[in-house]
User: Fold LacI family transcriptional regulator from Isoptericola cucumis.
Amino acid sequence: MRAPGAGAHGSADVPPPGAERPAEHLPTTEGTMATTTRRRASISDVARLAQVSVGTVSNVLNRPDRVAPATRDRVLTAITELDFVPNGSARQLRAGTITTAGAIVLDVANPFFTDVARGIEDRLDEAGYTLMLASSDEDPEREARYLRLFEEHGVQGVMVVPATPDLAHLEAARARGLRVVLLDRPSPSDTLSSVAVDDRAGAAAATRHLLGLGHERLAFVNGSHSIRQCADRAAGVRAALAEGGLDPQTALVEITIPSLNADGGQTGTQQVLALNERPTAMLCVNDLTALGALRALRAADVPVPSGMAVVGYDDVAFAGELATPLTSVRQPTHQLGHHAADLLLRPDDAVEHVTFQPELVIRESTTGTG
Amino acid sequence: MRAPGAGAHGSADVPPPGAERPAEHLPTTEGTMATTTRRRASISDVARLAQVSVGTVSNVLNRPDRVAPATRDRVLTAITELDFVPNGSARQLRAGTITTAGAIVLDVANPFFTDVARGIEDRLDEAGYTLMLASSDEDPEREARYLRLFEEHGVQGVMVVPATPDLAHLEAARARGLRVVLLDRPSPSDTLSSVAVDDRAGAAAATRHLLGLGHERLAFVNGSHSIRQCADRAAGVRAALAEGGLDPQTALVEITIPSLNADGGQTGTQQVLALNERPTAMLCVNDLTALGALRALRAADVPVPSGMAVVGYDDVAFAGELATPLTSVRQPTHQLGHHAADLLLRPDDAVEHVTFQPELVIRESTTGTG
DNA sequence: ATGAAAGCGCTAACAG
DNA sequence: CTGTTAGCGCTTTCAT
Assistant:
């Protein structure tokens, strides 16, 4: 699907969260005069030119076989002549439905969400549907605004990563007849379909991997438990420890960092290194955090993995490209979106909750010889 | 703008170009029964319930001051009662216009484009507009299909990263009255506005930086010149060399790699290292390529930058986080999108060509002591 | 301040 | 096979 050598941009990445917009980059402007705007040709213009009725033009458009070849050609010629593009609003008003779906994610510039969006788009494309994509920026008001806008535009349905735990407005939209699929959020509701990734399982798999390698003291550099993913992953780690016969109280140190980026990882790791009974392995809440961890470990001359094993989460593009390739938990982002769209397009409109399993990608940061 | 601690996904990245979709991730499905779908309430339902005419309801919606407070309240109550959401198609059909713009990029999962999209969205949002985003996958047919779809939906205008050098269909759409802004492509046309980044200048700045550091033999690991960005960047490198009094023939070795990713960078760098008169500095067409270069240099025990200076392009998130932080050329992606949207929203609909200047971000891969 | 009615562009009966 | 016509839901004169 994805084009291989996608121009010179094939490699880019996002700026770290909270990065400043680049300073003014001195645009060069080169203006020209304005152009005139004409009224668009309508179906009756075509009918007049082709000397037929509007009904016939409509038939040529929608059921060409019902029209005599000669007439059809005449109409087609008129269409080309006038450069006629049918008015979708009118059609939609008449038909009541539209082949468009909406998606509201937290941030379109976040690769997790755009990979999901890509999955949605690919599935929608198969069905001839278009996607309207928007970012809520975690602002419930923006989310509500876009939801409303999509609904007014008559979309078939909406896939949304909720910005708040409160799902009342989504339930209401659902009751109004709009299809709604929750993204990356297990639905507590019987009326809203949902598609999510099992964060507990991902963290548990990573933990089991470390236990299998013989580690018995772990650190987890995590974000606030008010973030669902962080809480779920912490639960997964604890569950795996218990399952392995270890007491989370003694075998685990959880460090909470304020921002889930490289700086947070570096600071968190320094705290881990300062511990008197130093753990032998670290789990990081995401790969950027792990990157900061690797930086801190290098600065402290702690070899990886022999002095400290490191596991990330997300399996981002650079994870396998680092000086020490990073073991990480990969999430089926594309499938997540694909399935969400699939649910939205289901003819029966049934409610369904789907949970995908993440996959541990093992690399040298846990199994190497460093 | 961008929320700081955007959930646990704040750090993710994209898979490398050409990466396979992850294998089946064993979704867990949990179904429930379907729900009934009711007809949406219309303005006349509201009118009936509120015991007023539809015109009055419309007035409450659009010019509340024209309606007596008592009547207005009655209507408002009815609206709430019926959970009425106005039909945008009907409104648009009547009004003829719509507050939506479209954007067609090559790939929504590519961070360069999503950063641009974010800039577009932010500008559009200021004006109360919505964005419809789509990927052409560099397929001209898909591009044409989306263009048409957007036009049918009556969008104000479309911002597009053209998939082909042929701009005829875009010119035609423009002639039909649709606003069109070219993204990341300097327009050869008087009728189409455009917003682009100066690739020659970016490559030239990187080259001048290296020359200023005393390097006199450079390698450029680049992609095919059939990709506009690659050709432009090569021209920029050559121009800067000439300007510095060096003969590109002797001072520059250009290596062409098939895929602009880490593997390409690694292979290309091996070729550079095998040269008999080895360059002292390398330019890479993007950061992922530079990552591969760093990997190859490490494998060959060549210190960076003392044995080989390295410059990337794009300034992706991890560029500053590597073992050797990477000097790179940052592009004003967000501004690019912001300005494109700005052009689209201009009331005068004038044609304008804007070129943004990239910015060299200097780090240790060129100035360090390694 | 409110109501009545025309019509935006199109589709889908229904006639012929 | 083609024409006629009635709306889809809404906004907007124009009356009252």
Summary: Residues 1-24 of chain A have pLDDT under 50 and may be disordered. Residues 52-56, 59, 66-68, 71, 90, 92-96 of chain A lie near DNA strand D (CB under 10 Å from a C1'). Chain A touches chain B through 135 residues (CB under 8 Å). Chain A has 14 helices and 13 strands.
